[in-house]
Amino acid sequence: MSDTWNTRTKAVHAGTRRSQYGEVSEAIFLTQGFVYETAEHAEARFLESGPDEFIYARYGNPTVSMFEQRIAALEGGEDAFATASGMAAVSGALTSMLEAGDHVVSARALFGSCLYVLEDLLSRFGVEVTFVDGTDLAQWEAAIRPDTKVVFFESIANPTLEVIDIEKVSALAHAHGAKVLIDNVFATPVYSRAMQQGADVVIYSATKHIDGQGRALGGVIIGTRDYIHKTVEPYMKHTGGSMSPFNAWIMLKGIETMDLRVKAQAASALALAQAVEGHANLARTIYPGLPSHAQHALSKAQMGAGGTVLSLDLKGGKPAAFAFLNALKIGLISNNLGDAKTILTHPATTTHQRLSPDQRAALGITEGLVRISVGLEDVEDLKTDLLQALG
Ligand SMILES: *Cc1c(COP(=O)(O)O)cnc(C)c1O
To answer: Is the C or the N end of the chain the one with fewer CB within 10 Å?
Structure first.
């Protein structure tokens, strides 16, 4: 691969390992083990393996390596480790770095499972976590201490779509020697410049836009070669959260079309947000690409676009939200996102059901809030569907 390649060239070619057959489409090496020519070779490989030498699929596999190299090239990271799911990536990145007595500062607005890891799990192992309003720099500044080891946030919070300033929060963290870990799912690898903006580690649920067609679970941790090899790899390969070679192949093929898909979905998300904003039955239309969004300018500077997800707050709370969802003819009621199919979720009763009403209120997850992951359908059909259901 050439470092001068632009993103779409890397998305199609980076990381390719061709076998002796010269296949065009990446091969699926559906094998968990690898044969050594001699006992001496086995001994040598366990001591130190080269880039094309594998031991066991939990440690690494040629198809999985292709995916890791391709996403690392796209993100501008030195290396990557692919995981069984997005949550294996979030929990693996955090637990591999932390030990009892460490301090973490995290944004409060998080995906439900991320909140479980940070709020319930880490505290059981003696890690102290301070939660802040991620959009308030003064709160980050007050919470980050000389002994803070990790700063964690979703660059766009699920499902309230608050945008966090990666450059400014990273500068505050780095001033105290803390590492910045970003769950960058909503920004997508297409709009991400997180590494250049200050992130030390970028995490994706590959289940979302990387697959992009709702087929397989996966995740990935991207960082420096040193961090991936010395911190993440020993932890992941011994605790078992590695990606399946078959899923890695699905993700590789997904990345090839990701730029086209995500840009089309983001264009439709903007068109839909513009079409429904101000509707009589809506209390609020939340989309970072709309000038009415509190971090509109930041989202433009940080990502160059508003992303593929918008949220609507319906007047009339849960009954109105449910009536709206049940009236849809194209949009599906489900909880994935980044899919080719438009998917709508009622966070208060599904993804964020586990939170208390007070916690939900603090995060702005009202009873009327509906999250829309915009798909690849014709945007005029989607507009008609949303407007008839809103009516
Ligand atoms: C979906 C999601 C995850 C978890 O990913 P899985 O692949 O479902 O494990 C983590 N963070 C965010 C922001 C997500 O949207």
So the answer is: C
